Amino acid sequence: MSHVTYKIVEHDGGWAYTANGVFSEPYPTHAAALAAARRAANEQRVPGRTEVIEYETADGKWQTETAAGNDRPETDVEDTA
């Protein structure tokens, strides 16, 4: 099972959370960013439907896969501020 950690950081004149190197939108306060990170972490764990997905790879080839709706990562929020 995969694991995603959401980290609260200062960003773009405010606060944001980051996961796997990607930043959220900025929030005006640390508390707002923390609340948003907790919501995102909770939503990430919710199972969904199993569906067929298509995507283009970096070399321009199209792939088709089945994404299992119950294959959800473990998540946590790290407050480093």
Q: Can you describe this structure in just a few lines?
A:
19% of the residues lie in helices and 43% in strands. The protein has 81 residues and is of the alpha+beta class. The chain has a 4-stranded mixed β-sheet with strand order 3-2-1-6, covered by helices on one side. Strands 4-5 form a two-stranded antiparallel ribbon.
Show the helix and strand layout.
Layout: E1 3-11, E2 14-19, E3 22-23, H1 30-44, E4 51-56, E5 62-67, E6 74-79
Parallel strand pairs: 1-6
Antiparallel strand pairs: 1-2, 2-3, 4-5
What features would you describe in this structure?
The protein has one helix at about 30-45, and strands at about 5-10, 15-20, 20-25, 50-55, 60-65, 75-80. With about 80 residues, the chain is of the alpha+beta class. It has one domain (about 5-80). It has a four-stranded mixed sheet with strand order 3-2-1-6, covered by helices on one side. Strands 4-5 form a two-stranded antiparallel sheet. The longest helix is centred in the middle third of the chain and has 15 residues, at about 30-45.
